[in-house]
Design a protein that fits this description.
The chain is of the alpha/beta class and 170 residues long. It contains four helices and seven strands.
Length: 170
């Protein structure tokens, strides 16, 4: 079992990586290398620091109000470790988890290795950042091609189902 993840940073009480207050875990390592990426230092896993799952969980559990976001880099670059972290978050807390990835939902479900993380994710923000489709008016996305996916509904319906974000109801 993997008990560590290479992390760039953990940011508490952020409001930019999903609705409400969130603890964002920024992973190191990304194979996509999207032109215009706002976090190119995340591409190299060596830029991260090795943290135990217990250390990360301690930070996440220290705040009763924050939900959790996995970002990066790309958490699916370290899928086994993020699956274990997400499993423990779900077992030990009542927090929801959003996850950003450059992969499409369809690519993830087609991969036995990547898809292990999906059952623990509430909302998946999928798709590479595309600079020519950049749109700063979108909630929680950088470009128009990216989708907010309701993962539990998508898994039940065996197709990507978009999550409808309503800022009024949050």
């Amino acid at each position: 079992m993997i008990d560590y993840i290479y992390i760039l940073d953990i940011v508490e009480d952020t409001t930019v990586d999903g609705p409400g207050l969130r603890t964002s875990v920024y992973s190191a390592g990304c194979p996509h290398r999207c032109p215009g990426c706002h976090n190119p230092q995340s591409w190299d896993i060596c830029n991260g620091k090795k943290m135990s799952l217990n250390e990360i969980l301690s930070v996440i559990k220290s705040n009763d109000f924050d939900n959790v976001t996995f970002s990066g880099g790309d958490p699916f670059f370290q899928p086994e470790a993020f699956t274990e972290l997400a499993r423990r978050i779900k077992e030990e807390t009542s927090k929801n988890i959003w996850c950003y990835t450059g992969y499409l939902y369809e690519e993830i479900v087609a991969s036995a290795r990547l898809s292990l993380l999906l059952p623990y994710i509430d909302v998946l923000v999928d798709g590479r950042f595309v600079e020519t489709q950049k749109d700063t008016s979108l909630f929680f996305r950088g470009s128009r091609n990216q989708r907010l996916i309701d993962v539990s509904v998508s898994l039940r319906q065996d197709r990507a189902v978009e999550f409808v974000y309503d800022p009024v109801s949050v």
